[in-house]
Amino acid sequence: MEENIVLTARGISMTFPGVKALDNVDFTLRKGEIHALMGENGAGKSTLIKCLTGINDFESGEIHVAGIDGPVKNRNTQDAQKVGISTVYQEVNLCPNLSVAENLYIGREPMTPWRTIDRRTMNKKADELVKRLDIKVDVTQNLENYSLAIQQMIAIARAVDMDCKALILDEPTSSLDDSEVEKLFKMMLQLKEHGVGIVFVTHFLEQVYAVCDRITVLRNGTLVGEYPVAELPRVKLVAAMMGKDFDDLASIKPEGFTFDAEAPLEIEAKGLSHKGTIKPFDLDIHKGEVIGLTGLLGSGRSELARAIYGADKAQTGTLKVAGKAAKVNQPIDAMQLGMGLLPDDRKAEGIIGDLSVRENIILALQAKRGMFNQLSRAKQEEIADRYIDLLQIKTASRETPIKQLSGGNQQKAILARWLATDPNFLILDEPTRGIDIGTKTEIQKLIIQLAGEGKSIMFISSEIEEMLRTCNRMAVLRDGAKVGELDGELTQERVMAAIAGGASDE
Amino acid sequence: MSNLKKLTQKRLFLPVFCMILVLCINMIYDLSIGHHFYNFFEITMTNGMLNGRLINILNRGSEVAILAIGMTLVVSASAGTDISVGSVMSLCASFCCMLVAGFGVSSVSSAEEFAMPLAVGLIGALLMGCLCGAFNGGLVAYLNIQPMVATLILWSAARAIGLLLCNNLIVYIRVPEFGVFGGYLGPIPTPIVIAAVCVAIVSVVLKKTALGMYIQSVGINKKASRIAGLNSQRIIFLCYLICGLCAGIAGIVASSRITSADSNNIGLDLELDAILAVALGGNSLGGGKFNLAGSIIGAYTIQAITTTMYNMGVPSAVTPVFKAVVVIVIVAVQAPPVKAWFKKRSAAKALAKKEVASA
Amino acid sequence: MKQPANTLKTRKQMNSNTMLLVITIILFVVLYAGGCVAYASKGFTTVQTFLNLFRTNAGLICVACGMTCVMLTGGIDISVGSIVALDCMLLAQGMGEWNMSAPVMMLLVLVIGLAFGLFMGFCVGYLEIQPFIVTMAGMFFARGMTAVISTNQLSITAETSQFFYDLANFRIYLPFGGTVNKAGKLVMPYIGVGVVVALVVLVAIFLVLRYTKFGRSLYAVGGSEQSAAMMGLDVKKTKLKAYVLSSFLCSIGGICYCMNTMSASVSQATGMEMDAISSAVIGGTLLTGGVGNVIGSLFGVLINGTISTIVKTNGKLASSWPNILTAILLCFFIVLQSVFARVRAKNK
After folding, report:
1. What confidence tens digit (pLDDT) does each residue in B62-112 have?
2. Contact between B217 and A311 using a beta-carbon 8 Å cutoff
3. Which chain C residue has its CA at the smallest distance from B322's CA?
4. How far apart, in Å, are the Cα atoms of C107 and each of C100, C102, C287?
5. Residue from the list C10, C213, C228 with its beta carbon closest to the beta carbon of A109
6. Which of A220, A351, C84, C208 could lock onto C254 through a cystine, CB 3.0 to 4.6 A?
7. B276 vs A270, A275, A404, B28, B69, CA distance in Å?
8. Where are the domains of chain B?
9. Which residue in the set A351, A359, A369 is minimally distant from B224, CB to CB?
10. Options 2.130.10, 1.20.120, 2.40.360, 1.10.3470; which CATH number does B51-314 get?
């Protein structure tokens, strides 16, 4: 093994029932580098990480760790930790009800001669550790008192203190705001200097170029390649991840699909707000338009939509739907007014896992009709079949439990649920997240088609590219407030500038 | 092999299998003590009333069957059980008798002595059941308290309140009009009729309205159901309300059977029977999809177990031992780690077979 | 810059967590003072009355300690009352009918407690069955086994076992707080062996929870099971141990309880699980796990004890009142917890 390599994986293969999740993948992590692991959803990133940390059993291949002779076989995360591979996940895996010091040392507490925990030593050591890593916390306080970013750093501190050589950060930034990300990066760079090899998994391209030295790209369970960052500009990275050049995704907007300020209003929101998530905002939405909500994660995009829909009841302000004043206390009220919301978290708020595809599709329509006005079985089947056909949902039958479908098909079924209610105003919150590129384009086309039929669509996505392709107007959000609107010629530069807070107020 | 597998995967396999098992045990027992094997199934007509062990089981199992209806819905919608049903039964019975007899009166032997008409007492009992259900439902649905902890309150308090209502006495209502609910309606025992009517009503409601889908949907994913326009809280509340009502009905039947309100003994340990019925019915106690028919068969299976043990001379205080064992076995077999273990084993077996075949 | 904001938030958090305990202590003081005012003539104000709270509830204190440990993991154990009944029955029947010596029977009781705990803990920890279902089965099983041993009402006298009788009636006098009885003799207040056992258990569990790996892992598991597993704690084993501890303490509690009642019957100690759970909850243990300690639970027990003492001293109130009042208190504190949790969630 080379001198400066801390971790290598050679020829890792693994199969899930019916899917080759990893096929002969190699991965090398060097000392003191930040190595981005990139790939679309389903590329095999998380499977590879799980193989490295012992959560998954791989079928063939070998893992070598610096300082250890022969291949390493991890059976669980503890084994991995022992050989120096630590992982910090997106959801912080610490106990909020314990003190910071305890979270740092639980399972390996300093003990007194009487085999009890030496709390004083533990607190002292913990204090030294956080000071060394420049995290400003009081180690005796409970972890739940600190922000998510601090908690994430504590998790990293724990990993670092456990003498890790390879630190895997699995989407650590997805729930952090900019300044928090900045702090995290500072910490990563500091660790890098100490010689820790860091595997960084993220969806944010900018972040990759901000801190990483090297990029490994996976696609459909195979290795595309390993590149130094300087040799792989963004466009090429995207191409490597998606397997086709970006230009292939040509514009899908029809001619003349632009913002029409003269169209009648569908939604007029005035001063709507929800305490702690979205400050009062005004928003007009016209018939037949696709309005995009843009802003960073946590800027209040989803929250704005949820306030209109009544998923989080708006505490102030008034709402007019199709010119009439409306009161929305809960989702069903909004639905009766012709709205629909496809939530961003498909698993938690979208699918009803054990129910069949049919029941999932007709659920919202049934709810709208009321409990005592049941759709006949024949009618249910007809609706389900129609949408399975229309959206090409790949399912064994309409009676298959929806949890057995792939992510993309689940998303289509939820979309079908809302289309079945024939909404006038449809909110789509990250409808294309975690979906393969083909389905993505289908959904985008569908959005434009729906708008063409005179429906209003609110479209939320983290990918500006995607928004530019589908929206004819955008509302910009920052820090829980709506800060402006963009219409006319939408370009990436304009949107970026608006999000960042330059020329937003037009 | 594959046929057997198909059979075991049928939804009603577990309850029917258990039922048959209990019947077989009965037959073997009958044979062993020198009776005919069909002794168990014998139905006779004495004084114009149906009699026999089978009828007895159907009759005595009515309360559990009625409770099982409500319990099934509660388990499905909230992934928890209502452990207060037994106590609520007792409270409803006490309330009914207290209304009819008047507070502090310990015995009524004719309709003239009624403090209030019987109908008031019955409706009062049902309302009390609904009230208890609403209390449980309110805590679970609107305050987000774990179901079993929320129902623990009434589990302990309801019986005590019942005692208080009856002034610490056993209130006797020795009036035929009252006794009819636990007696005979023509040749058929009334409890069987009441249970059948309850099951029929609930089945029709589930069939003709979307309630069944709503409940399952909420039980599987509360948040998603809300976004899709269901009022999750109201549906969970409704399930507890129905459960309370069922407990009220069961309380009247149990009280009428002994023509008295015996706070300390009515519905004693019945929560175990009701939960067991749901589990035996092939329903997961983790909520979600449910199967009412299974629960009902489960309920009568439990009663068959109870009756069988009684016939074998096991004291009634001891029967919970066996039921507890059955509960644990059923739930353990359904437990994910055990299922995973079985799967692994059968996979290993299949692999071994393949290897043998290829060699 | 951010530091002061953090500490400010912290102080607020601390309050909401300790608030429940403070409310509990205040409630106890108010209740007891109320009792003193209302029933001063019936001897409520004597030191002995206060000590009797401990004497009659020695068993419950042990049981509540065990319950607290289980509830810290986010579980619950409703088998405790039945196990106590089984213990009493075993002691009474064993020392009486079977002519076993008291120490042997006491040892047997402890072993049976361990066995119950091992089985239920295995079901909860390793088979991942809901604690409520498992311990409910345990509850019915233990109650049924009590009936298997005997369905009679048994009492323990000096003839049953001289040793046990002496142990139960052994008095440890306090050097102060005496009262003059009707005969004009000064009687010093006393406690029994049970109280000493209960207090030892209390202190031991307090230390275990605070200073041992096992104790901290109970909190960790209650805080977040997944995280605890990720941090290398054996969640299954921790849960198993929690239930073993609960059942074992329950058996110790059973012996203390038996020394107090000196009798056994099938229906004994019904509702004790309720008392133990409400004591823990009233004492600030969160039903969701991760927060709580045995000192709070002690106050919970004392509140429950004060209520029944008041009802008993009053003499006119129906015997079911303590049950109802305990349930109301439990309900109140559960709702309070739920409201606090909601406020906390909103602040985030």
Report:
1. 999 999 999 999 999 998 889 999 999 999 999 999 999 888 788 888 878
2. no
3. C141
4. 11, 9, 32
5. C213
6. C84
7. 54, 45, 30, 24, 12
8. 51-314, 319-359
9. A351
10. 1.10.3470
